[in-house]
Amino acid sequence: MLPAFAIVTVVGIATLASVRTLRPDREARGLTEVCVLLAAYSAVYGPVGIGFVLQFHHGPDLANLPPFIGGALMGALLAILVAGGMWLATVLALWVLRRPLELPSRRMGVRTAVLLVAALALVLGLAMAFFEAVENRSAGLLWVGMGLFVAQSFVVPWLTFLRLPRLAESSDSGDLQAWVDEVMTRRGSRPIAVRIHEGSLVNAFVLWGIRRPWLLVGEALLKEMSHSEVRAVLAHEVAHLLRRDHVRLLLSGVVWAVGMTACTMLVIMPLYEADRHVLGVMATATANTLYFVALGMVMRRVEYATDRLAVELLDGKGAPLASALEKLATVKKTPLKQKGAMHPAVQDRIEAIDRASLRA
After folding, report:
1. 3-state secondary structure at position 101
2. CB within 8 A of 344, min separation 6: which ones?
């Protein structure tokens, strides 16, 4: 078993090194992109598989611990190995493809990771204690899955950004909050408070809150860009809200969870029960890779549609949005023709914005 995992790891690392060396033009796509993602999962989960085998044969038995403590340790371990492994594989694949990591800030990433580990530990700890009192384990697993989904989608983001200041309270905001409120009202939606992400974030984004979604804008964005460019960036994010793209992203997560559950029950678990752990790991990696590739294709189309609506919200004036995208690419040191994991190339977006402006 250990040699098989070692071979998977070596093959994954060798593939990543070859692509990184032979494709310096940052244009690796199609099957090469899929191979890089699979290799990244192999490079990450090969050592994880070795660790599981060693822990199973030589590690402590969590069953001997009190239910809550054993469940909490299992939850923390799953968060680190599964969620952490997925993020590490994504980062590794983006590095090989020479593409930027689309993360608002390192501080936010660390805080979200810590909260996610704590949430998974708490939920699984409570679940293990609950399992001791019920006989229907399938109902318990459903409860655990729903708890983890709610924690990751709503509670963790809410705790991460709870104390951020509002744009209306900033001296740099001007009439931006009033403009956002006016656009939302004119489109038949409730006004939404924009919050400021303090630090070096030169971007803006939408995420779920507890009651309704939040719109966040980076503090550095307000300082680096002109008033018209900031409004154009906010127009793009408001367009996401009006199109309810955050709902689509949430539903994609539900589809992934349902798909992975079905794949686990029908394919992965039978492989593990047949003592074919390597094939089980590769099946997991393949399923995740196909999901992320499909999600990337969908989200790139979403960005084009959102840009078109943003131009409409700007009264047909797409030049500020195009200028803002160029500045964002300059700040991130991203070539204009390089596509991201979830975004089209900036040059392609600018050309589409110009066409939308002419039609308007």
Report:
1. coil
2. 300, 303, 304
